[in-house]
TrEMBL record:
InterPro entries: NAD(P)-bd_dom_sf, SDR_fam. It comes from Streptomyces apricus. It holds the Pfam family adh_short. GO terms for molecular function: oxidoreductase activity. Keywords: Oxidoreductase. This is SDR family NAD(P)-dependent oxidoreductase.
């Protein structure tokens, strides 16, 4: 395997079933396309089915579409039931879909839009599908976070839904920090089973539709700088693909671009912020997330912590 990991390094995925959320455009599209190109049966789990079908038509291989609106727990449950009726096993779940810097809005269940979509929707989907993965050796849950988990980010247990005040940037940071804390806590619970693992990834700065809600004050400077500091969606998808397919990848690891500042470049192991490894906050967030979604997982927390506080990272 080359030092500059690319889609050419993805092993043969024939016989594997993968679900990718938000796969009709951007990072999700490139992730799904690469997996299908290596033989996986790929499900594009998308809010807009028509756009999903258009995306599927542009891919080669076994690709299908499943309606999924992460802003609605009813839709999440319906999608999970549909997937369970179609498949008796699942090898890969990629929690990719997300929103960023949205104006103050709520999901259909009354959750702050970014926290509800990016974290709670994926938390519920994973919990409802996990028993399809536990019997499958080598199965993986990969959740896409962001360098935004470091920016004005904290888990605001006293105001998770930002009802008292609202910051687009802070709410996004909370949701992306939650993605990482969910991954690390999930891996802690999966470790005793020895089959499924949980990993995280981030795309650096990629040129996608996700940035359409960027505050006006930042939009013009970023437009000028974009050609210099961003990379293509295909490059941005590589950390997710490496976490999902690299035989050497381990549960609890986090992948991102290898260039300066993790802005762009070929994927490598990276570390997240110190607070993301706080096991007590991870557990508290997990409990709150179960309460809010009504979804419990078929894996319990072990008495001992099998994960280091901050994993060692090598290229």
């Amino acid at each position: 395997m080359s030092e500059k990991w690319t889609t050419a390094d993805i092993p043969d995925r024939r016989g594997r079933v993968a679900v990718v959320t938000g796969a009709n455009t951007g990072l999700g599209y490139e992730t799904a396309r690469a997996l299908a190109g290596r033989g996986a049966s790929v499900v594009l789990a998308v809010r807009d089915v028509a756009k999903g079908e258009q995306a599927a038509a542009r891919m080669s291989g076994d690709v299908s579409v499943q309606a999924l609106d992460l802003t609605s727990l009813d839709s999440v449950r319906t999608a999970a039931a549909a997937l369970r009726s179609r498949f008796d096993r699942l090898d890969l779940l990629i929690n990719n879909a997300g929103v960023m810097y949205t104006p103050k809005r709520t999901t259909r269940d009354g959750f702050e839009m970014q926290f509800g979509t990016n974290h709670l929707g994926h938390f519920a989907l994973t919990g409802l599908l996990l028993d399809l993965m536990l019997p499958v050796p080598g199965s993986r849950v990969v959740t896409v976070s962001s360098t935004g988990h470091r920016i004005r980010a904290a888990i605001h247990f006293d105001d998770l839904q930002w009802e008292r005040s609202y910051s687009r940037v802070g709410a996004y940071g909370q949701s992306k920090l939650a993605n990482l804390m969910f991954t690390y806590e999930l891996q802690r619970r999966l470790a005793a089973h020895g089959t499924t693992v949980a990993l995280a990834a981030h795309p650096g700065l990629s040129s996608t539709e996700l940035a359409r809600n960027t505050p006006a004050g930042l939009r013009l400077p970023l437009t000028w700088l974009a050609p210099l500091i961003t990379q293509t969606p295909a490059m941005g998808a590589l950390p997710t693909l490496r976490a999902a397919t690299d035989p050497a990848a381990l549960g609890g690891q986090y992948y991102g671009p290898g260039g300066r500042g993790e802005v762009k470049g070929h994927p490598r192991l990276v570390t997240s912020s110190a607070q993301s490894y706080d096991a007590a906050v991870q557990q508290r967030l997990w409990t709150v997330s179960e309460d809010l979604t009504g979804v419990t997982f078929p894996v319990a927390r072990p008495e001992r912590n099998p994960l280091p506080s901050v994993p060692a990272v090598t290229k």
